[in-house]
């Protein structure tokens, strides 16, 4: 349990004296009431026909000695809010989904080249054109030292550099084919002399980097090292893969049989489990002198892979799984014309997106379910937004169509065979937000989808009160960050996943008195750090996790401020103390410019929690958190945060935050999420404008006034 904190520690430090504040107190509510009325009128009738407030670029407001300053800041927020909200319809595609492109590093392009060459798909129509088109973006991911980075801003990694150079050498025809047809390993005929010369220079620099000693900048490379050893050995360009009995096809095939071995296997995280059949088949091909597909264990694993293929031809949640699975199926003896291989290859080609310079990049992930959920929530959060608006109704239809029969949602529609708890909770948040404003036909569909989603999540809640991402787990969460092996091999419940699920359930009408919510509150109390924050598995550091937990508690009815102890209910008392400590942690980490920031170093060093240069995304998320927990909208921390957001917005109402702080594997592998630039700051400004009403903090539809 977090230590109790005196609420006075969390009070805002206003930049006015007591006399001035006492004088302003009677008139400030009336002024804010007029502002709120103007905002509501504008929301009903569209942007007001008035002279627009000029865009200002002050980093903060230095004087708070009059209500006029507060109103001026809110007026500027109105202008930027209008511009940002007008961009929401542009995020929705023709089918109603919202998509984005993740081009994290050169790794996926290199693996795609290995797939084409090792399987003979290079002979397929347009394959050599695709290969050349992929090279351009791959070369953008090289560092000054000649090595390739795992994510923008990270040091070069030797494992990923070896994989990328393997792919580039295959394009140049520098790798001996060994047992494969020589035609598969020929030089790409579409390479120009200039391109070849550039590739040679980059390879020379990469070789110099690889000959250096260990790179101290990267803490751990296990996640890419296994692919480095496996692909180089499978292609025949590196040393043999070491003997590893736990990767033998016979052993892995036994794990997929019914019985105790299957139960043991299911305790492993799905991220790792979904890779094992393909890795085992490729390992068997490397270790065997015979290329015969007669091995029954390999055939059994091939059946497992085919059974896990999605209708669109893909596997699991990114493009690495399809590429490895196609190589494994080819190694298992399937012909290139076999339907699973043809559908998988077509799926991969559909994941290629054109770049600004005329090349192609392989979109590693497609988080359309999350993006669509974000857009629906952001639209309806605004006072004039409803579920029946022609702009947002197609997005709601798209999200409803993404639900599986068991009630779950996947990270994206391309991975529908693998619904997960986290995505289900996040989708329910959007559907629950849409329900109060939907008309009768849509409301009945929403109610059915919500009920199925609630049942799915309640069934998968762990016995300790938390949720892992994919399956029900008996493991308990632990305060602080996880090691890399734990993240890869296991699927432990974490505070951020549980918080998104609890918030989604709360938006769907599940109250704090429900047994599932009571267990979740105990889980949050257990995972709170001594500083008052919560570590976040999927967004680096402690500030994002704290934001998510506090948002969940706010939706359940907990508020900043006075609290009447309930002697008969210790859990509610402890939860309120945890909320106060969480808000205290947030306020103590606000930067001088009004924003919040945190670096990936916080994942490995808890003393760095909440420390970092301010960023728009983290500031927006934290600002929304404070406002939804009832922190005073006219307080100095809130006003400085709003001023920071306005100062970082462009004149057209956009923000640019491309820092790689979203985690694939914390401590070692991160990515940026540019789509959120259009969502989180807009939500924060909406929350601020809603909170400037005469009653302090108007609550969203269906929000309880107080925990009872």
Write a compact overview of the structure shown.
Helices cover 48% and strands 2% of the residues.
Give the helices and strands, then pairings:
Elements: H1 18-24, H2 28-45, H3 67-85, H4 107-119, H5 127-138, H6 158-172, H7 193-210, H8 222-235, H9 249-255, H10 260-266, H11 270-273, H12 276-287, H13 296-307, H14 320-331, H15 339-350, E1 352-354, E2 360-362, H16 368-381, H17 393-401, H18 421-434, H19 440-460, H20 484-489, H21 495-507, H22 515-527, H23 543-556, H24 570-588, H25 616-628, H26 636-648, E3 662-665, E4 669-671, H27 680-690
Antiparallel strand pairs: 1-2, 3-4
Helix pairs in contact: 2-3, 3-26, 3-27, 4-5, 4-6, 4-14, 6-7, 6-8, 9-13, 12-13, 12-14, 14-15, 16-17, 16-18, 18-19, 18-21, 21-22, 21-23, 22-24, 23-24, 23-25, 25-26, 25-27
Can you give a write-up of this model?
- The protein is mainly α and 708 residues long.
- It has two domains: 10-86 and 486-491 and 520-688, Glycosyltransferase; 107-362, Alpha/alpha barrel (Glycosyltransferase), CATH 1.50.10.
- Helices cover 48% and strands 2% of the residues.
- It contains 27 helices and four strands.
- It has helices spanning 18-24, 28-45, 67-85, 107-119, 127-138, 158-172, 193-210, 222-235, 249-255, 260-266, 270-273, 276-287, 296-307, 320-331, 339-350, 368-381, 393-401, 421-434, 440-460, 484-489, 495-507, 515-527, 543-556, 570-588, 616-628, 636-648, 680-690, and strands at residues 352-354, 360-362, 662-665, 669-671.
- Strands 1-2 form a two-stranded antiparallel sheet. The chain has a two-stranded antiparallel sheet with strand order 3-4.
- β1 (352-354) and β2 form a beta hairpin.
- α9 crosses α13 and α18 runs parallel beside α21 (495-507).
- The radius of gyration is 27 Å and the shape is globular.
- The two termini are 21 Å apart.
- Mean pLDDT is 84; it is low at 1-29, 31-66, 289-294 and 694-708.
